[in-house]
Design goal:
mainly beta, 31-stranded mixed sheet, 7 helices, rod-shaped
Amino acid sequence: KGWRGEVRLDATLSGTPEAMQIGADASIEDFHRYDISSAGGMRLRTHCDTQYSSPDRIARNIFCSVPVGNGLISLHGYAGLPGVHRVNLSLDIENVPMGAAGLLAMRAKKNLPADLVATGNIQGNFVVRENGTTASGGEFQGQGEINDFRLRSASEKADLSPGRVPFALSAAAGSAPMSRRSSGAFLQGLEEVRLEYGPIALPSGRPAAAQARGWVGRSGYGLMIHGEEELSRTLRLAKLLGLPAIEASAEGVAQMDLLIAGSWTNNVSEDTSGFAWPLITGKVQLRDVRATMHGVNGPVEIASAALVLSPNETRLDKLNAHAANAHWTGTLSLPRSCGAPGACRVSFNLSTDQVGLSGLREWLRAPEKDRRWYQVLSSEAAPASFLQSLRAAGKVTVGRVLIHDVVAKKVSASLDLENGKLKIADLRANVFGGTYSGAWQIEFAGKSPAYAGNGTITAISLEQVADAMQDRWISGTMSGNYQLKASGADAASFWESAEGGLQFDMRDGALAHVALNGDDAPLEIKRWQGRASVRSGKIEIEKAGLSSPGGRYLISGTASLGRELNFKLIPSAEAKPSTGSTLYSITGTVGEPRVTVIRAPETQAKLKQ
């Protein structure tokens, strides 16, 4: 199932059934796996001679030869038909070029480089014996080696030159195979004849250079790798061997303890061919790794991390990394067999002591065409970046977030990124001496990002807000909640498009630049509460109640994003001003407000304007 080619058999029989002389030629033309192009087809052929005796059902003087380049594979001996239990066969391999084995591998293994070149030659001798029915079954022996072995691919910039590779034939029954003795439970539970190979040196110049050893049997295959290797070379060697490897530019050290194993067939229903990818399990200790990705404007530097490959999950534990001018720790995980990037969701739990918004935006800004930070998630951005196809969900905890001159402490949030939409839930922070909690959703798929959010502020210090504005124009504490929608590529367009509302409650403060009744004392506020709306770049307050030592007022008016003011203060007992009543008009700017006293009959005219 899944193999293609044309089989041809020509046989000649002469003599009597008691002493039959048999000669046969067999060949397979254009041998290949069903999903590998048959261009440059491969031919396998052999010739066999034997004498068959029907009374004892044994073929004697068997001799088969398979010429391979300048080498030869030959089989000789005798063998009984099934049930006779008499076998004595010897298989000899003499100077078979590795180029032929490489060509066979390229017809049988998908994703090998098209320019793969294998050199070296194979020598070996194998024997199988059985004489009558015994409890232990047949005896399998044999060994050989590949001399001057080398694999290389110019397109993958990969070169593997282990030199000598020993191999041996063994059976699990009644023996302790080479790989079982050397690696504990590596092959436990397999009761079959198999070809074991290794150790294979993977020279890298490191003190504990990696070695590999493995096996091939009727049920499947396995390869164990242990030792240190350069990460970039490891990725190139994986592609050289047709193994799945991430597309990344990465440098660093990988301490590997891996098992690559699989079966020749698979019962997965969606894989109609019966072929399956090999499964890689084990652990890789990463150290001093520097990786770059498309769509971000800076590297990810991993000081250390443990990459754990289980059958169902890939997990990055004990992460100690630097990115976006911040030091990160935590974990990442991804289900196995995801296929294309974005097919599965990355789960994460990350934390850092401090991160700056400007540094994060600069890191996320793709260097191509000097695009803005959010455009790495835009469907119109080209070329496609890693973040555009990323699906991720998890939690982030930050000790300090620097937003220009504002410091938010103990920040935590749950993030969900999918299809160009970022959902920020359970966002919490200590800011301006108080607390903040809220949620936001940001859509990056359009020409301009769209935002929607809501939240609650509790007991924030207005003195700290004023300090951030570099003008101590207000003091006191404030609590409230808000809802806001906006869009835009920068702060100006964001606030010009913003629409929403704020329910606020200010207590025990003052407006430092506002003085009523002609004196220099700032307007003290016991409590100021009400609702403000945001629209067209302006904040509008309608009849918010203000209580001060001098009385109660209703405040209405607007403040622009340029800090321009246009407010009216009306004593609450005179909400409908009459002749002789006093109102206050506050204009100018937040830093330099102008207070004007309005008395009737001017009051009525002013209110109508």
